[in-house]
Amino acid sequence: MSGYLAGLLAVLAINIIVAYSVFVPAAAGLLNLGAAGFVLVGAYGAGAMTALFGVPLWLALVLGSLLAGTVAFLISFPILRTRGIYMVLATFAFAEVVAGVLLNIPALGGAAGLSVMAYAGLPLVVPVALCVIGFVAWLMSTRFGLSVRAIHDDENVAHLFGVNLRSTQVAAMTIGGAIGGIGGALLVHQFNFIDVQSTGVLFSIYVLLYVLMGGTQTVWGPLFGAVFFTLAPEALRKLSELDPALKFLESSRYMTFGIAVVLLMMWRPQGVITRTMIERLAGSRKPVAADAGAAA
Amino acid sequence: MSSVLELAGVSKSFGGLKVIDDVSFAVKRGSRTALIGPNGAGKSTLFNLISGVYPLDAGRIVALGTDITDMAVPKRIGHGIARSFQNIRLMPHLSTLENLMLGEHHRASPWALARGARATANARAVLAQADLDTYPGQVVADLPYGIQKRIEVARAIMARPSILLLDEPAAGLNSSETAELRRMLERLSESGVTLLVVEHDMPFVRTLCDHVVVLNFGRKIFEGTPEEVHRDHGVLEAYLGPAAEIPAGVAHAA
User: In chain B, which ranges are continuous DSSP H helix?
Assistant: First the structure.
């Protein structure tokens, strides 16, 4: 496998992991523009452990994830006092605070970033991404997943039926943070380097777009979003190499990609992958009887 | 017959507006009680007080022998009180089965599979009782209004309540759907569930319920049988206004 392809697959796997870190709280209706914050906590935490303390890579991944999860648990309490756009701003502010703190820790490289020797590689990154997909799929199939989706649809009625709103929301943010920490830990050990500037607000926006464009109604939405957003620009570049007449695709691929995003938002604001689509594909959607009464 | 639900001196205000004013009544075990009154009488507000959505300003509510006045909202369903809503409040992106499973959520472990064998079997049994077993896997937002209404009632039944609060369950249903709903509620009542039903459909009330409580402007103005309610002067005034002709021989409730 070429270095280019291996690098692309590694980026795809890490993007998938980070997408799921935003999906779990988003499935509970909690929009998170702070993905970069949890990724940085995991990356710098795991990177410092291998680079400064000689901790084995697998243990550093676990500890980086736990660290990011702990931070997510602690900040969930103030953040859950906000809603809607204010929650988006609060999570964005969290990521900026994390970046500011890390920039001012000389032991972690400061503005120059942190270099690490331990290398993850595809044999680690891909299986971990598959495990994350499997874990989130299992999580959303449990009663906890049902609580999360019920809170997303109508938290007042969910509360009336016995769902503990605060515990479920805190758990969703904590699990999302821990998954983001895994993504960060793999990121720093895949590229042997991490710095605050490369994982800023644009990173958080892209990850949120993966999830919203892919769809929050099912576990397959963030997977589709991450794959589309990671591979589409590269696919356009490859297409431009097939025929000189298509050369414009290389220089305009991001504009083309942006137009595609706008069209997607117009055509499928609920996301590309929806519950109805999955039910239809699974064959469990049957025509409703004609005598069932008028539609709402 | 003992009471399963007792309201004593219940009052509630929103700002300067008193929406429930010193309401007291008892619902007997196994009965089918209708709560009626003109729009704005406070019927849905009373349901919200019983289910805990709003705290009381005064009075107390006793359900199944326990004072639930200050009981936390999620605990009331475990205590045996379930409800449906005036406007459909299903989870639109969940399937029929998943909406029903929410009804027994308070009894389940958070890490159990939502679609475990036992949970699925329970939900399917309730769907079959409600003649809704054609729609288990479909996202409820895609279903017709009448079906959604019945699914919402089925969700409340999944909670295995002792007291079922139904807020205008027949609203928006055609005559055959209303008849199906009534049969479902009759079967439920025969199994021992006490019904408290807010309704405007008086034929539905007359055929289903054996007791009626009437509210107007947040106060209880009448309590009695469905036959008596039609003859009460106060009830007629509440619906028709003080200028209405009062037929000869109509009693005025004390």
Answer: 43-51, 73-78, 96-103, 117-129, 145-158, 175-190, 202-208, 226-229, 233-240
Per-residue confidence band for A91, with pLDDT thresholds at 50, 70 and 90:
very high
Q: What is the CATH number of the domain that holds B69?
A: 3.40.50.300
Containing domain of residue A87, as a range? 3-219
Q: Is any Cβ of chain B less than 8 angstroms from the Cβ of A245?
A: no
> Domain tally for chain B?
1
Q: What tokens does B230 get?
A: 């039609």
Nearest by CB: A275 against B93, B102, B106: B93
Q: What is the pLDDT of residue B254?
A: 39
> Model ipTM?
0.85
pLDDT for A221 beyond 90: yes
Q: Is residue B249 a part of any domain in this protein? A: yes
Tell me: the pLDDT tens digits for A173-200? 999 999 999 999 999 999 999 999 888 8
Tell if the CB–CB gap between A276 and B134 is shorter than 8 Å.
Answer: no
Q: Examine the pLDDT at A255 and tell me if it is beyond 70.
A: yes
CB contact under 8 A, B74 and A295: no
Domain of residue B58: give its range: 1-80+163-169+193-254
Spatial distance between the Cα atoms of B214 and B219, rounded to a whole number of angstroms: 8
- Is A177 part of any domain? yes
> Which A positions 139-168 lie with beta carbon below 8 A of chain B?
141-147, 149-150, 152-154, 156-164
Name which of A141, A157, A282 is nearest B115 (Cβ-Cβ). A141
- Cβ neighbors of B82 (< 8 A, separation 6 or more) are B103, B156, B157, B159, B161, B163, B164, B165
Question: Does A255 reside within a domain?
Answer: no
Residue A243 within a domain: no
Whether the pTM exceeds 0.90: the reply is: no
Task: Pick the range with the lowest mean pLDDT from A233-237, B73-77, B96-100.
Answer: A233-237
CB-CB under 8 Å, A163 with B91: no
A292:B138 CB<8 A: no
